Amino acid sequence: MSANLDLTRVSWVKSSYSGNGGDNCVEWAPSAISAGVVPVRDSKDPQGPALVFDTAAWSAFVGAMRRGEFL
């Protein structure tokens, strides 16, 4: 993972799983995948912090969500 990743220069995309009502919106930066990471942030606070996961950890999380492991 690059310690010098500048998240102010990435393009953020709203998750397709976020609703259209403006609540609980998550954004991620697909362009950062080339650096081996998946940044995620709350769209209601775009200047706030972002969580940055390595791609393997993010894939494992998404897979567990799809299998219903967190219900």
UniProtKB/TrEMBL annotation:
Entry-linked Pfam families: DUF397
Segments forming domain DUF397: 11-66
InterPro entries listed in its UniProt record: DUF397
The name this protein goes by in its record: DUF397 domain-containing protein
